[in-house]
TrEMBL record:
GO terms for biological process: response to oxidative stress. The keyword Heme applies. GO terms for molecular function: heme binding; metal ion binding; peroxidase activity. It comes from the Eukaryota. This is Peroxidase. Heme b binds at residue 349. It is found in: Secreted. Pfam families: An_peroxidase (PF03098). Its main location: secreted.
């Protein structure tokens, strides 16, 4: 009653239908865990790998003697453009798409179409901001290397939304972050996070998602009001998507990969429908969704992560199992995301290239655009063949180098495009690290390695000597070092490209994610489980195949499309890129069921 009166039901209450142990993975994530049906839905509370650090009155980080986040950022990460020798920008596109599946609108969203501190609360640096408890602006030091002459002394920022800020729990309790995304990998950017939204996306015919055809290209349905495409350059750029997830219209990489997986759904559904004419819309839709979700997970786990984290490392730690079925389900584990996981994924901002280059299908360079100027601007994709050129560029352009101490200048100074004079993604990331009450780096090191760390010297194994010296200059005590700041400059782990700490946190989360997911695609005994033949077909997919199937103008591509084109990874015809054999899903009972006209 209180939530109805306070108009907080959206945030605080989930209406869940009774569970059926044999049903498909639900669109709203409920009933994954039969004992705790609400865990797995939107607003599932986070767990913490380590308890929060806080002062007794739960205020903002009490450690006032920590170095300013912007100072830490500019000391550790300088601004330039350095191409990676291995990864294409497609890898960064896929990673942000995956991040959006489990976290959302980049922690900036307040209402579906507004961006909390970018549009909704843009005043945190003004006197008004001092009265708003959600404001947590970032101070820019007077000797800042970029802003010493600009006069900018503050970046706008708001705190993460919590069950307390949204009115679900009493204000004087410890703030717990609230998130709209469902915590397991279930393609939320395509199917949304709630039942009613998901239904809006369905065509209810042939298992398909709604679609439109314009200039010979297939698009998700349009939002004629353009509510979330504020940067469309009207009247020329008019397209704006209306899909179950609002994320699609946000960042360009999320947008384009969601379009691909939206189309992939219909591509698979059409093949299934043709082969199994006796399947109804419901069966076609849920089977297709199940395959689509498995494809996303297969590509992430078996194609992209080994390049970043080391194949042998992931095998040894039980993340990969490149054989037949495996059943690692633990019903006592509830589906939940750790607070540390999305924070750790922010480290990947380092690999984000700021200038997106576009090519035609012959590989001829056409033009470039700043990625920060493509946010909330779906219309750009639909004009001047831009989606074709962006698609071609995605597997031709190198990403920014991920394991150096250099970040893209646009990501570092003007992430919010025209909406704010200056905005530094990395400073926001570090500020959020503190605003989420995350324990210091050394506590995580102790947690994962079992070692006790009491001095900077104890860290010699993890940092280069010059970096360690800088850490000791910036932080008064080794116990103060922020988790994310340490990851920015930690040495990469053996056999991989990511810092040792990134690896440990991501592995712990992935294991929990797989173990707590009753519908995990590699399980032989989940409801509507794949047969072994079907699983072997899923194991054949690659991001190159996805682009061959649904990417605009893609007829040739390198087999490992997250990796740059080269003699070891040459362009080849799509005909040569392995495809799923859809016959593994053939339902032989259909042929019996087809009615003869004489019946
Ligand atoms: C490698 C590609 C990228 C990855 C993997 C990535 C991932 C993430 C993740 C995991 C978060 C935290 C979400 C949360 O805590 O719920 C985040 C936050 C954010 N990202 Fe990205 N992102 C990428 C690219 C971009 C790009 C291209 C932009 C802007 C043009 C961007 C802007 C932001 C912003 C504004 C935030 C919120 C910062 C805050 O907390 O206030 N990201 N990103």
């Amino acid at each position: 009653m209180r939530h109805i009166k306070d108009n907080t039901t959206f945030w605080c209450i989930n209406d869940i239908q009774p569970c059926d142990a044999e049903e498909w993975r639900r669109l709203d994530g409920s009933c994954n865990n039969l004992k705790h049906p609400a865990r797995g839905t939107t607003h599932t509370p986070f767990y913490r790998m380590l308890p929060a650090v806080s002062d007794k009155d739960c205020g903002p980080n009490s450690k006032s003697d920590l170095p300013l986040v912007r100072r830490v950022r500019t000391n550790f990460l300088s601004e330039a453009r350095v191409p990676d020798q291995t990864f294409t920008v497609l890898a960064s596109y896929f990673l942000v798409f995956i991040s959006t599946d489990v976290s959302n609108l980049h922690d900036t969203s307040n209402e579906p179409t507004t961006i909390n501190y970018i549009l909704w609360t843009p005043y945190c640096c003004l006197p008004k901001g001092q009265e708003d408890k959600m404001c947590a602006p970032i101070q820019v030091p007077a000797d800042d290397p970029v802003h010493r002459f600009s006069g900018i002394r503050c970046f706008n920022l708001t705190r993460p939304m919590t069950f307390q800020s949204q009115g679900c729990r009493k204000k004087d309790t410890f703030p717990e972050r609230i998130m709209s995304a469902t915590p397991l990998f279930d393609l939320s950017s395509v199917y949304g996070n709630s039942l009613d939204k998901a239904l809006e996306g369905r065509l209810f015919k042939g298992g398909l998602l709604k679609y439109e055809v314009e200039d010979g290209r297939i698009w998700p349905p349009q939002d004629v009001n353009h509510t979330s495409c504020l940067r469309n350059q009207k009247p020329y750029e008019t397209r704006c998507h209306k899909t179950p997830s609002d994320e699609i219209n946000s960042l360009m990489p999320i947008n384009i990969v969601t379009i691909w997986f939206w189309r992939l759904h219909n591509h698979i559904a059409n093949r299934l429908a043709k082969m199994n004419p006796c399947w109804d819309d419901e069966k076609l839709f849920y089977t297709t969704r199940d395959i689509n979700i498995a494809i996303q997970a297969q590509i992430l786990l078996y194609e992209l992560l080994p390049m970043m984290m080391g194949y042998d490392n992931l095998i040894n730690d039980g993340v990969l199992y490149p054989h037949g079925f495996r059943d690692i389900y633990k019903k006592q584990l509830t589906p939940q995301l750790s607070m540390e996981f999305p924070l750790t994924l922010r480290w990947l901002h380092k690999m984000q290239e700021g200038t997106i280059k576009m090519y035609d299908a012959n590989g001829t360079y056409i033009k470039k655009e700043a990625i920060v100027d493509l946010s909330i601007r779906t219309g750009y994709l639909a004009v001047d063949n831009n989606i074709d050129y962006l698609t071609q560029g995605s597997f031709r352009q190198p990403s920014a180098k991920m394991d150096d101490h250099v970040v893209d200048p646009d990501m570092a100074e003007r992430m919010a495009g025209i909406f704010q004079v200056s905005q530094d993604t990395f400073s926001s990331d570090l500020a959020k690290n503190r605003l989420m009450y995350i324990q210091p780096y050394v506590k995580y090191l102790e947690h994962f390695s079992g070692r006790t760390i009491s001095s900077f010297e104890d860290l010699a194994e993890y940092f280069e000597p010059e970096v360690l010296e800088k850490l000791s200059e910036l932080y008064k005590s080794v116990e103060d070092i922020d988790l994310l700041a340490a990851m920015w400059v930690e040495k990469p782990l053996d056999g991989g490209r990511v810092p040792h700490m990134f690896y440990c946190i991501v592995v712990e989360q992935l294991l929990r994610t797989m173990q707590s997911d009753r519908h995990w695609y590699e399980r032989p005994n989940r409801p509507h489980a794949f047969t072994i033949e079907q699983l072997q077909e899923i194991r054949k997919v690659s991001i190159a195949r996805v682009l061959c199937d649904v990417g605009d103008t893609v007829t040739h591509i390198q087999a490992r499309a997250f990796q740059r084109i080269g003699p070891e990874n040459p362009m080849q015809s799509c005909e040569e890129i392995p495809d799923i054999n859809i016959k593994a899903w053939k339902d032989y009972t259909c042929s019996k069921k087809i009615k003869s006209p004489c019946d």
